Amino acid sequence: MTNSLLFGISIFVYFFSMVLYVSYLAFRSDALGKVATLTLLSGVLVETAAIFLRWYESYQMGIGRAPLTNLYESLVFFALTIAVFYLLMEWKFKIKTVGAFVTPFPFIVMAYASLNPNEIQPLVPALKSNWLIAHVVTCFVGYAAFAVSFGVSILYLFKMNAENKSGKKGGVLLEYLPSSELLDEIGYKTIAIGFPLLTIGIITGAFWANVAWGTYWSWDPKETWSLIVWLIYAAYLHARITRGWRGKKAALLSILGFAATLFCYLGVNLILSGLHSYGGAS
Amino acid sequence: MPENEKVKARRVDFIDRIWGFFTSLRLVIILLLVLSLLSVVGTVIEQNKPLQEYYRFFRPETVELFLKLGLLDMYHSWWFTSCLALLALNVIACTMERYPSIMKGLKTANVVLDEKLEAGLKDPAKIKYHLPAETVEKRVTELVKKIFPAGPIVTETQDARHFFYEKGRYTRLSFLLTHLSILIIFIGAIGGSIFGFKGYVNINEGSTISTIQTRKGENKALNFGVRCNSFNADYYETGAPKDYRSDLSVIRDGKEVLRQTIRVNDPLSYEGITFYQSSFGALPDNVTLEIRGKNDASHGTVVAPVGKQVDIPGSGIRIEVADYREHFHFPDGSEAGTAIGVNIFRPGAEPEGVWIYEAYPEKNNHWGYSFKVKGVKLQKYTGLQVNKDPGVWLVWTGCIMLVVGIMLAFFTSHKKLWIRIGKDRKGRVELTAGGMANKNKYAFSSEVARLFDSFREVS
Ligand code: HEM
Question: Which of A39, A98, A148, B44 is most buried, with most CB under 10 Å away?
Fold first, then answer.
């Protein structure tokens, strides 16, 4: 299948972009930084092409469905949204140094995806719904935002830690990193984008469940974990807006939130069982 | 202080403290985190399984403990619902507390840039021009249009003209919208569980039902009948199900009032009751058996309807077809094909249940009789989930409010801009301007600073 060939290429491209971003952090050459961004961008383009090709191929096989319905496809989409989201943040806030902390995700996620079965399989009746597509897309863009916020928060903690150790002066590297206020602000802004998306994701999921099974909420582990993630970020936002939690406390909550996100996405399938179609026997 | 006033003061103090507890933001954050922590427990211990499953995995004392703590149905336990109730009280209190200031923010602000207002503005601009006031006014209002497309409120005072611009006043309602939406969702969910029901029903192809079974195990009569005209299932080549659909009719007073084909993502609703395609299957209607007795003497063939005892002519025994399996497994796990569960009634003996295999007639010898399956007449049925949830529309209303509220809260703000064009002491035209926003202040003030820079270039 040609789509898997393209996916394979994109894994390598993501790998190189990660190496380039890390080297950029180490050597701080602007040329390297440009190449790193372009490499990541080409990874995104190749992967987008692969997804559309997979979609097209599913029609050729007479199945005809959006490529968003099993673990492999969701991982692939997750990798893409993280890369795209990061590129947008880099472009808006000029924070190339954050790349070294975010670009490992698309690579790791794609590499993990490649360990999963990737045949195009027909859909069982419950998954044939446009609500499903709205649900998956919004959830994953939300997750991607949380992933970027996680990377930024790690960088923030790393920077604060190094500054506290080496006093005010710090190394050349520290000075090269974005200011801690900016990191803190980006950490918040990305969550402020991810939270409404996750909210829409949970609601469209509930709507779909109601149409398919007649219950919008049944406390199955996947639903419950998405609620847990939502509650943690709601706590984060309230702590920040109303109690002025900033800096370290906010960064730690953001990291906790992303840990819960990862568990919601993978842990529930690998460790807990549920109604959802990702992973499992199929 | 007189005694009764002291008591009063103490009471006020007490009420204040309770109010303070419920409006405290620390409580919100703690509640949100506690609820998420509790929810984790319910995903680790599987909920609402049959009791024997818990006994298989845990020691009996552990199961008893879980039962006592309500951990096996924890999302409906008193402590979990209390946390939700506390959250609801918390939201109500916070919303009431902030209501007056929100309403105040919605009132039209001061439209005149006087000295008092000017003193409260952050980074106001003061620009002098060697141009006629009319020209300045025309150019400047043109520039402002880019940020505030809606025209200004213009006020004349003795010595100056004032221009007031405003955008997004109603985004101040975002707080009310998000927090009320949570209450509305709660009310919808509670209302639905009190005034609605969830149940299921199997309908044989061609027959009509008018009662269903609720999840609590009760029978519930409907005001109408539902007939399954036909049921069909399609499969992919791999054998995975592709589509299942039931052609249903709603029957009222003997007449068909609605006919619709339902599928997994496409239910039927009638009078607030919704029928969802959930499962399907087939049960035998009757089974034709050929029976031989001792010395291979034939007792002929009988057609045995399911669940009815039938005499076997000339043998003195009776049989009853009681069960049916399409894919039976032998005790060693190998596939046995179709099997019929038959109870055999012999005179003077307890009835005995045996399995009769369609594909292995040589295994079907019991007490000197041998059975052969000649035919099975199957009756297909469709399995429907039946719900009534009168609260669901409130839940969706709340969800829409929640999303709109969150979007407004994060991405919009109430922005105001004042401009005054007057004369300074030397008689030159002087422009004073300043802006204010309730959120995203940093972004707005840099936007305003750029606007003021463009004012300075007016010549
Ligand atoms: C459980 C779900 C909740 C959600 C989704 C939620 C959502 C929000 C959002 C989006 C904001 C930002 C508003 C803004 O920036 O103007 C906010 C602010 C706030 N929330 Fe909540 N909230 C929740 C629960 C609560 C509760 C239970 C309380 C009660 C104490 C509360 C009190 C507040 C307060 C006081 C603010 C500050 C508003 C401001 O400063 O403008 N929230 N909430």
Answer: A148
CB contact under 8 A, A125 and B278: no
Contacts of A206 (CB under 8 A, 6+ apart): A216, A217, A223, B399
Reported ipTM: the value is 0.86
Domain boundary among A123, A149, A174: A123
Q: Which position has the token pair 């190998």?
A: B334
* Same domain flag for A23 and A117: yes
Q: Give contacts of B 38-57 with A, CB under 8 A.
A: 39-40, 42-44, 47
Which residue type occupies B350? E
Q: Quick one: A152 and A242 in the same domain?
A: yes
CA distance B269 to B261: 11
What predicted TM-score, i.e. pTM, was given to this entire model? Answer: 0.81
Q: Give me the mean pLDDT over the B400-407 stretch.
A: 94
CB B10: neighbour CB atoms within 10 A?
A: 10
The pair of structure tokens assigned to B192 is 């639905």
**A175 in the same domain as A83:** no
CA distance B123 to B435: 8
Give the integer Cα–Cα distance in Å for B456 and B431.
10
Whole-angstrom distance, CA of residue A160 vs CA of residue A249: 12
Q: Chain A partners of B399 at a C-beta cutoff of 8 Å?
A: 203, 206
Q: Is the confidence at residue B159, as pLDDT, over 50?
A: yes
pLDDT in tens, A151-171: 899 988 888 887 777 655 556
| DSSP reduced 3-state for B416 | strand
B279 touches chain A (CB under 8 A): no
> Could you give the domains of chain B?
3-104 (no CATH), 110-168+413-456 (3.30.310), 192-279+382-403 (2.60.98), 284-380 (no CATH)
In chain A, the residue whose alpha carbon lies closest to the alpha carbon of B29 is A235
Nearest to B246 by CA among B215, B210, B202, B212: B202
Q: Would the CB atoms of B264 and A126 count as touching at under 8 Å?
A: yes
User: Per-residue pLDDT averaged across B153-173, rounded?
Assistant: 87
Nearest chain A residue (CA) to B395: A216
- Averaged confidence pLDDT in chain B: 85
Chain A residues with CB under 8 Å of B35 CB are 231
Over residues A226-232, mean pLDDT = 94
Residue A169: predicted pLDDT: 54
Q: How many domains does chain A have?
A: 2
At residue B425, what are phi and psi to the nearest 5 degrees? -65, -30
Give percent above pLDDT 70 in chain B. 98
Sign of the dihedral defined by the CA atoms of residues A210, A216, A218, A219, in that order? positive
Exposure string over B139-176, b if 16+ CB within 10 A, otherwise e: bbbeebeebbeeebeeeeeeebbbbbbbbbbebbbbbb
Mean pLDDT along residues B228-241: 80
Percent above pLDDT 70 for chain A: 90
One domain for residues A116 and A155? no
Q: Which of A28-42, A114-128, B337-351, B430-444 has the lowest mean pLDDT?
A: A114-128
| Domain extent at residue A45 | 1-123
